[in-house]
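A student in our group prepared the protein record below, which I am reviewing. I have pasted the whole thing underneath without changing anything:
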Amino acid sequence: MVWQSLFLASLLVLTACTQHLQVKQAAQPLSQPKLIEQATDHIDQLLTFHTVHPSEWQQNQNSVGYLSELDNQGMPVSDKVYTVALSRLIYGLAYRSAENPANLTKAKAAAAFQLQHMLGEDRHGQYFLSWVSPTAKDSGTRLDIWQQAYGLCGLVELYRQTGDQQLLQTIHRLHSALVSRFQDQQYGGFWGAYELTDGPEVGSKSLQSLMYPVTAYLANLWLADETNRDNYQAILQQHIELLSEIGWNQQQQWVNVKFDDQWQPCESSEQAVCSSVSPGHNFQLAALLMRAAEWPFMTVAQQQQLQQQGERMVDATLAKPIYGPTGIAGGFAQSFDPLSNEANDSRKAWWQHCEAIIALSLVPTQQGNRDKLLRFFLAHFQDQQFGGEYFFVDADNQPETTENKGNVGKSAYHSVEMLRFL
């Protein structure tokens, strides 16, 4: 009887391990060397495009901020350095530093600039200023989760590449202050905004306030900071469980974008549409759930459920009328009415295609569509004349050259993240 009990116990462990392995095998790398080479070349020229113009507010070569607002030809349109744009650039430079050590030097100098010049402080600790220039800096009192979370994006990737313990201590302080401000102790998750004078902003909860802290830095910090993983797992698990439960509108087959303070979704009706929806957020949520399916602190049942849920979201989004007669190979429009499924903005946004390519990479049956969409992205969003990448192409796939290629948030993040998952 003892050996039978041992056999059954071993069988249960083997089954659980096999199921977990099946989840982990979901991500499929690119098998076509030419596509990989093209995607890599795109990222490298993009990093070059955004590092041509360092700020004049530069103390020495060890502290360099890069101008954020760049026009279609790559020329600066202001002297501002924005936190999100700079942090996302640090992320890209750090990620590509193994192949190009000069990128690591730039990433370290940009991070030094961010930490020296782009921080404010309140009773919780330090926070990120939205922007600085040689003559002024952001003086607003409203902090939003998007800028605060993405302010940590580059620093965390730089730590992942270097293992710099002093940098990690700084990350810990900034992370703790962010959690102290934004975490809702009663209903869970994060508030979308925080007033320095009044505290959390009522009515600010959204899909982004649940999703962006995880995608911007927390998932990567958990990956990189192995010694302190316990510090992040509760937040990660809570956000994923909330997203799995309330992030998806099963009836409309779109994400829920807005929530009340108790995390009840705002329901669109014919009388009032709560918010337009985007395929990009559908794909981004699906990808995050499938990524969470690989986290070992989730139960095996949760892992299976998250992978399956993410795959269903991808299938549901691809089944919608989001693209033209050429199908997924022609890209998709950026904004829709959740009730009618009609496009209310037919332009195609670069970041949404990056998020779709990531999501398709995590579904074994979608590799053909992944490759089609990647070819479209590389053919239409990269500017062969002036470099960089367009923010939008129109419904006929012509670039919108009046839209700045660099702005408050656009530098290199989404495209680098796409390459990382490829």
About this structure: Residues 2-24 form the longest helix (23 residues).
